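Wed. Picked up where I left off yesterday with Bifunctional NAD(P)H-hydrate repair enzyme. The coffee machine is broken again, so keeping this brief.
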Amino acid sequence: MTARPILTAAEMRDAERRSGQPERDMVERAGLALATAIARFTGPLRTLVVAGPGNNGADGMVAARHLAAAGWDVAVAVAGQSRPGSVAAELRADWPGHLADPAAAAPATLVVDALFGTGFARPLDDALMAAVLPLWSAARLRVAADLPSGVDADTGAVLSDLPAAHLTIAFGALKPAHRLQPAAGRCGRVAVADIGVEVGSTLTELPRPRVHPPTAQSHKYSRGMVAVVAGAMPGAAALAASAAARAGAGYVLQLMAGGALDTHPHAIMRRIVSADAVAEQLDDDRIGAVLVGPGLGRDADARRRLDAALLSGKPLVIDGDALALLTPSRLSRHPGSILTPHDGEFRRLFGDLPGSKVDRARAAAARTGCTLLLKGADSVVADPDGRAAILPPASPWLATAGTGDVLAGIVAARRAAGDTPFDAAAAGAWLHADAADRVGPGLIADDLLTHLGPR
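Structure written out below (tokens, as returned):
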């Protein structure tokens, strides 16, 4: 499936300028798309459109006009003064009904939030917040034009604490705030409306990956061999190894520091090896990826096992404890590796980098030469070449022990099968989230394993 572009506010403005289209035409298309989406989302309801002074408000005015023409009971409240001669000012002047102040507007069943769009990156002032908060709270349905008011389009920060929208209509393209938390949680369902502007970006939404089934000519090694370097906590490594097998690897070898060998599934080849023997086990040309970190531990023995993995010359997926034992300078000596930190591990490695989650992941990828899969409800994949992608909102039930080990195993399977580091990380993140959706509420990490196959 095609990856949908995600544009920052500045990129969207540039795309609109490059289109050469009159501003009024784009506003008319956006407003019509907003009205059409609202009509499809719900039947005719008593509606209040709250319009700001700029083009986001203008979009709302056009939507109000179309809904009223279709017989809806529509009221409009306007905030702030539109610039004289602007499209927003013209549309306000053309509205045949009363334009209320938000503080005096009556609540309605449906509120259309057309206050502020992508260009607004500060909290609502106290007076406006006091006026609109009761309106948002009283509405049974809330629809946002382009973005819910009070969120930062580029960082996903929530700047004003308004109730979440049920539906957001993104004009032209997704914006980072539609996919980055916590703003993504304020957007509800997100639909993208075509406003006739050609868009493109090095930042995209993660699409469903292309997962090719084995052919009649496939064998276990051609499907990819994964070696999992285990350590102090064999259960974590076992989850990762099982996930690699379920995600398509034809052969999975788990190199254990100790523990029982007769654990399920029996399809995983398990060997107890000393730290000094790990290098010899990894000296196998059939190995397509080495995963190190899940359950590795952080003692001297773990360090020797990690060293063997790093010196193996094999494609690496580095997770968990291994990330705690490394530094950015050492990681930079292994470019092409895939790093899978959560936010805490990322901060320990790289500190509090500035910018959005995407900015931080890109900076770390450029610094190390590695592909970053920065995990979370809004997982971000970033490549040293500048590409980045954001996962659509994932199940909050993934916030439980062991799910990161499963994710690392999936990524290792994809890497062993021949995916590039970026594609392996992207596919792993998507398949992991998809498995969680299939399991549903109350999942534990083990539940994901039997839901990793194709639908």
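Quick read: The first strand starts at residue 47 and ends at 51.
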